[in-house]
User: What shape does this take?
Amino acid sequence: MTSSFTFHAMTGGDLDAVMRAENRIYPFPWTRGNFVDSLAAGYRAWILREGDDMRGYGVVMPVLEEAQLLNISVIPERQGQGLGARLLDFFMMDALAQGALRMFLEVRPSNTTGRRLYERRGFVQIGRRRDYYPAHGGREDALVMARDLASISRETEGIRP
Assistant: This one.
């Protein structure tokens, strides 16, 4: 049996499920207010579903010809199965379709899995934000990464926003 993945715009009705997942995934999760504010501001927020089940989600903030990836998350049971790459490819295609020429993101230096994903998708480190993230026992820096979106359509055939 083949799995059928679909993307849906996140709505307020998704927030209970998103918050349950967010609190399971992260030691320092986004708050419900972060998601509510993102939706109210018109950010591009998406849910990845397999059938009726949410498998992942994310939020991208469009800013003129740029896009800032704010959140990308896969439920714990499905991590390591390529869904993060599927989400990221979709977010890049959607940003490109919205007129973005470049995408930015921050990632914890300790998040080696995330860093590898971003690097495989063409992101490069362009800076560092000191003490950006809360961490057990203090703060953790963020690596700032960016990628031009011009070549996205050739790399992600079949993925359309």
Observations:
- Residues 83-97 form the longest helix (15 residues).
- The CA atoms of residues 105 and 145 lie 5 Å apart.
- The chain is about 30% helix and 40% strand.
- Helices lie at 15-25, 32-40, 83-97, 112-120, 152-155.
